[in-house]
Design a protein that fits this description.
The strands form two sheets. This protein has a seven-stranded mixed sheet. It has a four-stranded antiparallel sheet with strand order 5-6-11-8, with no helix packed on it. The protein contains four helices and eleven strands. It has one domain. The radius of gyration is 18 Å and the shape is globular. Helix content is 19%, strand content 36%. By secondary structure, the chain is α+β, with helices and mostly antiparallel strands. Strand 1 and strand 2 form a beta hairpin.
Length: 223
Amino acid sequence: MTASAALVYCQRMRLHPRDRRVPVHGLRSTLALGLLAVWVTGCITVDGTLRADGTGTLTMSYVAPPGATEASQRELLQAPGITIKSLTLDADRKFSATLDVADVAAIGKTALFRNITVTTTAQGDDQVLTIKVLHQPKTLRDKSIPGPKIGITLPGKVTEATENAVVDGTHVAWSFLLADWISRPTWELTVHYRPAKAGEADAPGSKQAPAPSGTSKPEAETK
């Protein structure tokens, strides 16, 4: 894959003319596949907060493909255990959303994140959050194109994290170059954290993460 092809794939996501003539359900399937490619190729920014009770908040932003609507994007995010708190698609196709998550496993039940598995396990005094991503590897010659950005606030101090993570107290962040991200069939991002003790005031991860940049439009909660 050339740099220009990657940029077109990432930023424009054009549909083939034949795709524009398919029925509505077919168009939605096409958009779903396109948006899954958004994640796979790294054209997404995600920030999450995991609370001590296992629930959490997830915010995200990306450029939606031509033909996308708020309804089509909402459909990609609806799943058991997911509540859409806000969702915005502007005239430039810049999409942002904030979700409440009943448990981390619910994330992988959405159409958008169906190639992702998120789990939590105990390991000694620590809890371990693991994000596993599967996709078809590709080659990109241009090594300068930015890839995905992922940030998480945990309900306790981070003690260890993989894949060149940047750690700041209870927050961990990863950022990747697109060439690196698409070169591997599997990514497994792991972070260990020490849960805050019961009774501690303002325990980390107890508050929602901020909404993505731009104006968000509140809507009624739906699952």
